[in-house]
Specification:
about 675 residues; 14-stranded mixed sheet; two-stranded antiparallel ribbon; Rossmann fold; 22 helices
């Protein structure tokens, strides 16, 4: 009988576990994306990524939901499957759909509002998850707004909890964060939060396997970045000392420099004062260099790519050109349905509601966090060299001033040429876990201009490169870091097994190989590549669902057999039987009838709903760290990423009015 009870307990447990699996997969299937215009037309079945998207609930009490869009390559090499890259755009308040549909995602949107192939998609190097955050950005929503960077970190850590509950098979993946612009503030704060969490795990928590950060044209040290505008403008030929406004701009620069020199590095109020003083430099520079005689759409330098022009006062806010396709694509009700939106709302590239409330007055600049992060994980900072607003001079200057891992700045200050696919694409400085890359002929949005090259940034982070001596006339010796298109390096040579150190450059012509992970071609033959189904559920999900149903049926058959044996046994034993409880001495301790004992056992059982309700109650209670700025229904102004307050004396001229967000609840939700 004891054996029968054990089998029954095992059955109940198995059914409970299977029900949890079924619920999880059922929940996940609600986020599956299988239909987009152009998907079947412009992609082979084997090229269609496995996609999930939707608005994940984080906090019920303030209706906070963050929108995500996850891409996985069905043909990815096995060694890359356990890798998750979270991509964030900046603003604050700018949607990461910029990154998904104009930068590192598998799609671009053509003039017919159909998805076409991005040859440099990062999803071929690992799963990529684009997240609209903080709440209110893009398709994310809440009744309350964040206003400081600590809140962004807490909110994203909560998102990760919910996300990995939905995708538990990814919870042990290597995790990387990538993004650009104001994500130079977001990413260090989130990374710092993860690293602190890993050191203070609560019962039942597992550490997140955070492996590295990639920040492009990052707004990391605002004061240093502001002081780079005038030197950059001179180097780029935007202005010179003979310009009529030179003295005016120089005085603003000097005022900013004096404020920075007098700043107490531990005073938040001092940082705010410096920001207020320094932010006017770019405003004045763009205003004074506009060409009133040019065509209306060519009067102002594009602050994101100085080689381009734009109308004044937009100065880059109408860029990039793909935005005219992305906007209607994301505002299509059919596409919003395909992306599983609970709350359908008008998509804006950047939300003025979020940006205006996100003051960060209680947050230190992210540059203060970098030294502690660099003690634990590698960081790559890359800049497109044509960007004004977050230019490479500012990044190099704050690196020179920053102390990390026992020294200040790069000690050797040696610049490697970066050679990608046989072409010199920039230069690289790397030391003590920090790598800086200046990328030639690229804008504020490097992946938009250089999609395939940008994917190779992952190789640089993971030190999956060669170091070679290149012949330069008149130069005795020059070293180059060489990366390749996806998979080419694997065909190029046999790469040594990953090691914990990076080979040092040598003075000979021999090739030196970087360490860590190598990337293989997405087109390499796989043993059994997964072909996406045209149905609403992917093949592997169907298979796993079928196998679970089969196991449940088998368990039901087994329990019927056991129950039959039990009933036969009960019939045979027609009189009540006794169970003798023995004490430690082996003597009879107590005697009870079997049916009485079963009754007592039932009395001792605790209803599972009580514990569940208690657990749910914890999540329903308000978090003191989650008290955000309440929303309102006032009309709001739309700001381009990092481009607020650009018109001297008349801010409104530099703000594009946008329609109120149109929110339509799905019926029944």
């Amino acid at each position: 009988m004891l054996f029968i009870h054990i089998l029954l307990a095992m059955f109940v447990q198995a059914v409970f576990v299977e029900s949890l699996h079924f619920k999880r997969d059922s929940d996940r299937s609600q986020f599956l994306v299988s239909k987009l215009p152009g998907l079947q037309e412009n992609f082979k079945d084997s090229e269609i990524p496995l996609m999930f998207a939707g608005q994940l609930e984080l906090y019920k009490e303030n209706d906070t939901h963050l929108f995500f869009w996850k891409y996985s390559d069905n043909n990815i090499e096995p060694e890359y499957k356990k890798r998750t890259i979270f991509w964030l755009n900046g603003g604050p308040g700018c949607s990461s759909m910029d990154g998904a549909l104009m930068e590192v995602g598998p799609f671009r949107i053509d003039s017919n509002l159909k998805v076409t192939k991005n040859p440099g998609s990062w999803h071929q190097a690992g799963d990529v998850v684009f997240v609209d955050q903080p709440a209110g950005t893009g398709f994310s929503y809440s009744k309350e707004f964040d206003h400081d960077l600590d809140q962004v970190s807490w909110q994203f850590l909560r998102f990760m909890e919910v996300y990995f509950e939905m995708f538990p098979e990814d919870a042990d993946n290597e995790i990387y964060f990538a993004g650009e612009s104001y994500a130079g503030q977001y990413i260090p704060y989130i990374a710092d939060g993860i690293l602190k969490r890993n050191k203070n795990l609560k019962e039942g928590q597992n550490p997140y396997n955070l492996k590295g950060l990639l920040i492009g044209n990052g707004w990391i040290a605002p004061d240093v970045q502001s002081l780079s505008y005038l030197p950059y403008a001179v180097a780029a030929g935007i202005i010179n000392t003979n310009h009529p406004a030179w003295t005016k701009i120089l005085k603003q620069h000097e005022k900013c420099q004096n404020a920075a020199n007098n700043m107490n590095g531990d005073s938040l109020s001092d940082f705010a004062i410096v920001d207020d003083i320094c932010e006017g430099i770019l405003t004045t520079l763009l205003y004074e260099t506009k060409d009133n005689s040019a065509a209306a759409n060519q009067q102002c330098f594009n602050m994101y790519d100085y080689t381009l022009k734009d109308s004044y006062p937009s100065c880059g806010m109408n860029w990039p050109p793909d935005l005219v396709n992305v906007n209607p694509f994301l505002n299509s009700l059919d596409n919003q349905a395909s992306l599983n939106l609970i709350l359908k709302k008008k998509w804006h590239e950047c939300s003025g509601r979020v940006g205006s409330r996100f003051t960060a007055k209680k947050s230190y600049p992210a540059v203060k966090l970098l030294p502690g992060i660099l003690e634990q994980i590698p960081v790559v900072l890359f800049n497109g060299n044509r960007d004004i607003i977050c230019n490479y001079i500012g990044t190099e200057n704050f690196i020179k001033q920053m102390e990390w891992n026992g020294a200040t700045g790069f000690q050797e200050d040696y610049a490697y040429d970066w050679v990608y696919d046989g072409q010199t694409s920039g230069y690289i400085k790397t030391e003590r876990n920090l790598t800086f890359i200046n990328i030639f002929d690229a804008s504020h949005m490097v992946p938009f201009d250089k999609p395939e090259l940008s994917r190779s940034l992952i190789d640089v982070l993971l030190k999956n490169f060669d170091i070679e001596t290149v012949d330069i006339p008149g130069d005795t010796e020059k070293k180059a870091i060489v990366t390749y298109p996806l998979g080419v390096r694997k065909l190029h040579q046999e790469v040594p097994q990953p090691s914990s150190t990076t080979a040092a450059p040598t003075s000979t012509n021999t090739q030196v190989t970087g360490s860590f992970t190598q990337f293989a071609s997405s087109g390499a033959a796989a043993s059994s590549p997964a072909e996406p189904s045209s149905s609403s559920v992917p093949a592997e999900d169907k298979a796993s669902g079928s196998s679970r149903i089969t196991r449940i049926i088998q368990l039901v058959v087994l329990v019927i057999i056991i129950w039959g044996v039990y009933m036969l046994y009960s019939t045979y034993k027609s009189r009540p039987s006794s169970i003798i409880r023995t004490g430690p001495s082996g003597r009879k301790k107590n005697v009870q009838w079997a049916d009485q004992l079963r009754s007592f056992q039932n009395d001792e059982e605790v209803p599972p709903s009580g514990l569940l309700n208690k657990a749910l109650g914890v999540f329903r209670r308000g978090d003191t760290r989650g008290n955000y700025t309440p929303t309102d229904t006032d009309d709001y102004l739309e700001d381009i990423e990092m481009g607020e307050n650009l018109v001297p004396g008349n801010v409104d001229h530099f703000i594009v009015d946008s329609e109120d967000e149109e929110e339509v609840r799905k019926s029944g939700t």
